From TrEMBL:
Residues 4-123 form the Gfo/Idh/MocA-like oxidoreductase N-terminal domain. It holds the Pfam family GFO_IDH_MocA_C3. Signal peptide: none annotated. InterPro entries: Gfo/Idh/MocA-like_OxRdtase_N, Gfo/Idh/MocA_Oxidoreductase, GFO_IDH_MocA-like_dom, NAD(P)-bd_dom_sf. Residues 133-256 form the GFO/IDH/MocA-like oxidoreductase domain. This is Gfo/Idh/MocA family oxidoreductase. Coiled coil: none annotated. GO terms for molecular function: nucleotide binding. Transmembrane segments: none annotated. It comes from Caldithrix abyssi.
């Protein structure tokens, strides 16, 4: 079987720690080229991951290589133009979140992918965790009943490492902690509930660090047309001793909790823990 030929743009930490090690383990994938401007870093990575070619610009990589797909793992402001270039060139695209800095650009990418019958995938990896897949099946089978409330949050502890300079400049990041971490929680809640139609959203945002040009803490309240409510709280750095990551889901017949997975149902008038056993439960968000 022919291997899927992949080029990867942006060789920061997410590429080095996650994407390249996983891609290199896949028997049906061949990483043909890397694209980045950092020569020192690139030489080491080409050798470590046994990738034959290196380019400074994605347009040259796409022109010179016979690729099937491109992974875009750059800083956020490059996501839209690079994804658009790859799709225009007839290539499938995986792009790290956020897909773009605004909704109109995101829609342009979706429309272009549909027009060309190409796959466009955003890095919302939490959908594919074992615990999330089990919970998704429970909810699809109406085990929890009608979902009326989801409460989710991701608050990072106080002694976290500093952010990258581009992350706190809106022109490069598109926003602050909501577009960085909140999108993962929003996607998870929407995915588990079947992408309900949203009626209204209220956002309370805060800037705790006066040097930041974007919000570094926020609380969002989302109301679906079905009547379901979702609350989301996120922060890059709160006065906490440890990270808080949680998702509570409440239905009319039961409830569920993620990190770790717990499922409770009302059976014969009693609250019963019906959580299935997982051999290797990975509940980490990133």
């Amino acid at each position: 079987m022919d291997k899927v030929k992949v080029g990867l743009v942006g060789v920061g930490s997410i590429s080095q720690i996650v994407h390249l090690p996983i891609l290199k383990k896949m028997q049906n994938v061949e990483v043909r080229a890397l694209c980045d401007v950092d020569e020192t870093k690139m030489a080491r990575l080409l050798e470590k991951f046994e990738v034959p070619n290196w380019y400074r610009t994605p347009d040259l990589m796409i022109k010179e290589e016979e690729l099937d797909a491109v992974f875009i793992c750059t800083t956020s402001h490059y996501h839209f133009p690079m994804a658009y270039l790859a799709l225009k060139s007839g290539l499938h695209v995986f792009v790290e979140k956020p897909i773009a800095l605004n909704a109109p650009d995101a829609k342009k990418l979706v429309d272009l992918a549909e027009e060309k019958n190409l796959t466009l995938m955003v890095g919302m990896q939490n959908r594919f965790r074992d615990d999330v897949q089990i919970l998704k099946e429970f909810m699809a089978n109406d085990e929890l009943g009608e979902i009326f409330y989801i409460k989710t949050g991701w608050l990072r502890q106080w002694d976290r490492s500093p952010l990258q300079p581009w992350q706190v400049k809106k022109e490069y990041s598109g926003g602050g902690v909501v577009i960085d971490m909140g999108t993962q929680l929003i996607d998870l809640a929407m995915y588990l509930t079947g992408m309900p139609e949203i009626e209204r959203v209220r956002l309370h945002d805060y800037t705790l660090n006066p040097d930041y040009k974007v919000e570094d803490a926020a609380l969002a309240v989302i109301k679906a047309k079905s009547g379901m409510s979702i609350t989301i709280e996120v922060s890059w750095r709160m006065h906490l001793e440890r990270d808080m990551v949680y998702t509570h889901i409440f239905g009319k017949k039961g409830s569920a909790y993620l990190n770790p997975l717990r499922i409770h149902k009302e059976l014969h008038g009693n609250l019963v823990n019906v959580t299935p056993l997982l051999q290797n439960q990975n509940s980490e968000l990133r």
